[in-house]
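Q: Could you write out the predicted structure for this multi-component system? I'm mainly interested in how the pieces pack against one another.
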Amino acid sequence: MTITPTPSEVRGPESTPKGRGPRPFQLGDRTVQWLFLAPVVIYILLFFGYPIVKNFQMGFQEYGTAAFVSGEAPWVGLDNYIEVVTGSLFQTALTNTALFTLGSIAGQFIFGMLLALFFQRRFPLSGALRSMLLLPWLLPLIASTAVWKWILDQDNGVLNQTLLALNLVSEPVPWLTSPDLALLAVVGVNVWLGIPFNVSLLYSGLQEIPHDLYEAAALDGATGWKAFWHITWPSLRPVVNVVLILGVVYTLKVLDVILGLTGGGPANSTQTLATDSYNRSFVEFSFGTGAAVSNILIIIALVFAVIYLRASRRPVDE
Amino acid sequence: MKTPSNTQRFLNTGLGVLFLAIMLFPVYWMVNTSFQGGGSAASSSFFPTEPVLDGYRRAIDQQTGNLVTSLLVALGTVVVSLAIATPASYALAKFKLAGSNIVLFSLLIAQMIPGIVIANALYTIYNQVGLLNTIPGLILANATQAIPFAVLIMTAFMRGLPASLVEAARVDGAGYFRAFFSIIVPVSKNSIITAGLFCFLFTWSDFIFAVSLTTSDEVKPVTLGIYEYLNGEVQSWGPVLATAVLASIPAIGMLIVAQRYIAAGALGGATK
């Protein structure tokens, strides 16, 4: 950014209270200062605080269509949680959430890292190519999902047609319609979506590693893979932590990709906690159990949020 | 390290172009299919050799209202989010208020709360206060994604502003509000633009609040229009992907026109 006001321009000679410690505030300053912060505080309370409390409360209520008509939602204790946890779908949704998250993160990170390392080399147009790489990240997810659904189409999709033409498969692969393959396909699409974000964070992390480190290592004979292992990786660790944890938090939220590609099917093979919560509330109109699932989801997300805050604070303190 | 030769450098450019082509193939395929007609679900050819505009005609016919809704919601969210986030960022960056850390911490956590959690509760609240199926309802809901991001990115920037900048104005008798509008806002222009662009893009792409907080055809963002195509059996991909292209125009436009802001935001979102 380009703001560099010189001190002499903005500070008159007599106006600076020198040697008095902090600038003396007049009475009432605090009140005025709080006015700047008040709108965001009110917004946080209304749109984060209240919904979280409300959701917590709804988890203990029978909150179906009847509740919307009568305005009365009876308390049912832990019934919603018991129904959710002992339901046949819960195990599946939990396993799918874990597989979807792990698979997505691993894929995004590995490809993101390889591309970030590649763009470290200096070559013509590298900057332009790197910024065009951001495009998949900026498109509306549902727009990308639409084209992927067409690419993965069993009968007329370009992926199967290419694979058939190259004789890599003998018959069209049911990417989105087979319970064995759908989760893999959904992970693949999500990896594609996440690569740009990983590349841009990892690339900027790589740029901050001082060049002398590599020069010193080269004198000791460490280049290539050795240099990566002994210099790049340890120096990049804080950035890697942030990228991975943010990846988990963002992947847990994913809803549009799965709903658009498979709707959670076939046979619930791509149902995750997020899609399950959505279905219960907005398809089956059972907001009580929907709230129960989303409260479980929020606890998982918060665990990673705490890990993130610890991981991202460390490099600042050093 | 040895400097790479010219051949090597251009070889790398070739490789880079290849990687980019693979990554952007779906985007190409979206544009390509959008120009191919045919009512059936027949496969697309690799190039739109005989481009037809049928897809766009149907997309514009069916989705114009939804595109306008998305635009109004996105612009509204930018205005509301910046109006709340800009003064807050200034306060968080420069005033040492007792609760500052709690507010910043809440916003960091808020960024990580899955949208479905908020949507679940908002539906019941909106149902009571009559905000379902309204543009203001969607604006306020989308601000839950936009405000934390905007505050974090602008606070990081404003921390770097020299304290003397405001002191001078204050000594000249300007109140906090005048100092804010005549000094802080102009010098923070770049970070405000970055925050605004991302508020726009987040909201324009929003799916979760669109799908949960609207049930009518009058107020329906374009993302929901696309989802409804996908939800049924797709008869013809031309109009679906023409809509997807139309919905992607803001992102593509911003990447071209406002590249440096986008690059700043891409990093700022995570590294504070």
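A: Regarding packing and overall arrangement: Chain B has one domain: 54-271.
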